DNA sequence: CACCCGTGGAG
DNA sequence: TCTCCAAGGGT
């Protein structure tokens, strides 16, 4: 027999209606039971029983076998928080949210500002807006219960292909094909898929669909993700420890790190802007305003700022200030966004009267609860650090 | 499909 | 220092 993965037999036998690229990249036909997939899922689930990560939103494999299901609310919340975000970053936010809002109805009843404030720092703030919208739909239109099928879940705000499948599988035992970044990596390696992302997604989905067991589909999905997170890592995967290495084509060919292949990404442009941190002389409060609900950092608070639409050579300067004051340059903040790099000049001034602009005062004590994204928190800190009057006042 | 949308940690 | 990128979704 040739060097062929035991997990690709089905693929060879398949008709290959999806055929594009190398013949052995042909996925099995969806909905067709796959003996090879069964072999993989069995090995993987056995590994998961012994090595599952212990995470706050999870039910252990042992408890799961006793019929204990995780709370759909907690599964949903964790899945949304984990979108493009590391487990390490999510943990404390998950703890905060579940303690403050133990049920979806509690969350639905929360003020927008409270939720945005609690989400501040986690990034991708559209998630927080959609989270709240989803909580309200579930509470008001579904009697406080999450729909139990991927199809129905998919219709809710902030729940796409991945999240709907993940919730359906993990919380409701639906054998939905869960495909996230981890599973894309694991799958492209198992089958040595040469097609670069995102074009390979269709084939990946078909493979995953064939692998997904009808028994323990949720544990299977989480096992794949754990495998990707701890063994089948982007760099230097620990194939020696991998429970499915025997069936991995990339491993056989000695080049697991070459997958998944990806298209080259575009360079990030540079932008510059300015933030104006006005501080109240009497108590050091900072003047804030709300950003528009759409677009970058949508719905979050900020000190009045210019837009960053284009690079202005030589900086922006105090001419861009939202109101007259004794503005002086406190420094600057460099911040990398997903698709551009920003340098934000930070100007500061001390004032007595309220500015004649939309906004509110945030006292030093209330600043922690403000919906300030990390960028704006940095800007306030820069202004703070160069305000000599602060220490004078506080003594 | 291509683009927009944050942040922090790892190497 | 710098690049990569993590349990993606919306438009």
From TrEMBL:
What cofactor does this chain's UniProt record say it requires?
Answer: [4Fe-4S] cluster
What is catalyzed by this enzyme? Answer: Hydrolyzes free adenine bases from 7,8-dihydro-8-oxoguanine:adenine mismatched double-stranded DNA, leaving an apurinic site
**Which source organism does the UniProt entry give?**
Aureimonas pseudogalii
The name under which this protein is listed is Adenine DNA glycosylase
Any one biological process term the GO annotation gives: base-excision repair
Q: Which Gene3D superfamilies match?
A: Helix-hairpin-Helix base-excision DNA repair enzymes (C-terminal), Hypothetical protein, domain 2, Nucleoside Triphosphate Pyrophosphohydrolase
Q: What does this protein do?
A: Adenine glycosylase active on G-A mispairs. MutY also corrects error-prone DNA synthesis past GO lesions which are due to the oxidatively damaged form of guanine: 7,8-dihydro-8-oxoguanine (8-oxo-dGTP).
Q: What is its EC number?
A: 3.2.2.31
Q: Which residues form the HhH-GPD domain?
A: 81-230
């Amino acid at each position: 027999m040739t060097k062929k993965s035991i997990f690709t037999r089905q693929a060879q036998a398949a008709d290959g209606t999806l055929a594009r690229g190398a013949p052995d990249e042909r996925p099995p036909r969806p909905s067709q039971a796959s003996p090879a997939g069964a072999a993989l899922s069995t090995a993987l689930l056995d590994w998961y029983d012994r090595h599952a990560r212990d995470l706050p939103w999870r039910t252990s494999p042992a408890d799961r076998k006793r019929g204990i299901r995780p709370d759909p609310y907690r599964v949903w919340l964790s899945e949304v928080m984990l979108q493009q975000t590391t487990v390490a970053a999510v943990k404390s936010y998950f703890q905060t949210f579940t303690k403050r809002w133990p049920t979806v109805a509690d969350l639905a009843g929360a003020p927008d500002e409270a939720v945005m404030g609690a989400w501040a720092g986690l990034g991708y703030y559209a998630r927080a807006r959609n989270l709240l919208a989803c909580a309200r739909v579930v509470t008001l239109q579904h009697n406080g219960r999450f729909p139990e099928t991927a199809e129905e879940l998919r219709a809710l705000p902030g729940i796409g292909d991945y999240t709907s499948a993940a919730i359906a599988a993990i919380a409701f035992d639906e054998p939905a094909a869960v495909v996230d970044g981890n599973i894309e990596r694991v799958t492209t390696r198992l089958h040595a898929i040469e097609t670069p992302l995102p074009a390979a997604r269709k084939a990946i989905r078909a493979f995953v669909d064939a692998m997904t067991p009808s028994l323990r589909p949720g544990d299977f999905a989480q096992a794949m993700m754990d495998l990707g997170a701890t063994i089948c890592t982007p760099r230097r995967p620990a194939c020696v420890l991998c429970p499915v290495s025997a069936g991995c084509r990339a491993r056989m060919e000695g080049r697991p790190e070459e997958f998944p292949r990806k298209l080259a990404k575009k360079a990030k442009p540079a932008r510059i802007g300015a933030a104006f941190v006005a501080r109240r002389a009497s108590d050091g409060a900072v003047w804030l305003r709300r950003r528009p609900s759409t677009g970058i950092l949508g719905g979050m608070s900020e000190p009045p700022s210019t837009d960053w639409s284009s690079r202005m050579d030589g900086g922006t300067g105090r001419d861009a200030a939202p109101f007259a004051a004794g503005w002086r340059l406190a420094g600057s903040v460099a911040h990398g966004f997903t698709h551009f790099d920003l340098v934000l000049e930070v100007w500061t001034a001390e004032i007595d009267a309220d500015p004649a602009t939309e906004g509110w005062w945030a006292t030093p004590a209330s600043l922690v609860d403000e919906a300030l994204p990390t960028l704006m928190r940095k800007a306030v800190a820069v202004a703070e650090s160069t305000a000599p009057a602060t220490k004078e006042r506080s003594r």
